[in-house]
Amino acid sequence: MGTYNLPRNVKGEGRILYVFSTKALLYAFAGVVFGFFIYLILTFFKLDMIGFIVMGIFGLLGFVIGTFKMPESVAFGITKKTGGEPVDEVVKRFVKFKLAKNKVYVYQKPIKAKEKIQEVKK
Description:
flat, two-stranded antiparallel sheet, mainly alpha, 122 residues, 57% helix
């Protein structure tokens, strides 16, 4: 019986220039384009250098959103619930939630009158 080459389980995306994945490159490009519009506004006020800095910051922010994942930590509520998910997925869900004008309701146990009086006295 002959040997067969089994395909490897290749996870993730292909890399461009070793650092950029395709998704990260697109997000960084979108950040630079957004920063370019701010740069154009700042050129009217003769603030070209600040415009370049803003463009770089938005490009870096786009790269971070496209590359990194939320850390798994129990210190904060958001990292406990979304730990290990890509940052862009979390941002997309947040924007969809806000655009739908949804609200989060939190139930609190009713406070008795005696407990309320004791809190006021403190």
